[in-house]
């Protein structure tokens, strides 16, 4: 469990660093006479950033599953109540 948490954190840090590096390049922000539209943004995200977005989605899903596991109540009386389905 601790290894998965560490790998998730390292993956998120690596992905954030890669995105900051790419978005910080001067070629991306040079003056361009063409106005950027939301369609251009959508095409860029789905064409150029498909794999990083997929990886980010997997990491977020892992975080949500981990949170759901940690919230689960496993006290003995609650487990017995769930199995019997009646009040004790």
In terms of topology, how is this protein built?
Blueprint: H1 2-23, H2 26-29, H3 38-47, H4 50-71, H5 76-84
Helix pairs in contact: 1-4
Q: What is the gist of this entry?
A:
Helix content is 76%, strand content 0%. It has 88 residues and is mainly alpha-helical. The protein has one domain (2-27, 37-84).
Terminus-to-terminus distance = 34 Å
Helix content: over 70%
Helix-strand string: HHHHH
Q: What gyration radius follows from the Cα positions, in whole Å?
A: 22 Å
The count of helical stretches stands at: 5
Strand proportion, as a percent range, falls in under 5%
- Domain count, please report it: 1
Which overall shape is indicated by the principal axes computed on the Cα atoms?
Answer: elongated
- pLDDT average, as an integer? 82
Largest beta-sheet characterization: none
Helix-strand category: mainly alpha
**Uncertain stretches of 5 or more adjacent residues:** none
DSSP strand tally: 0
Question: What features would you highlight for this structure?
Answer:
mainly alpha, elongated, single chain, 88 residues
3D architecture notes:
The protein has 88 residues and is mostly helical. The chain has one domain (2-27, 37-84). Helix content is 76%, strand content 0%. It contains 5 helices and no strands. The chain has helices at residues 2-23, 26-29, 38-47, 50-71, 76-84. The longest helix has 22 residues, at 2-23. The mean pLDDT is 82.
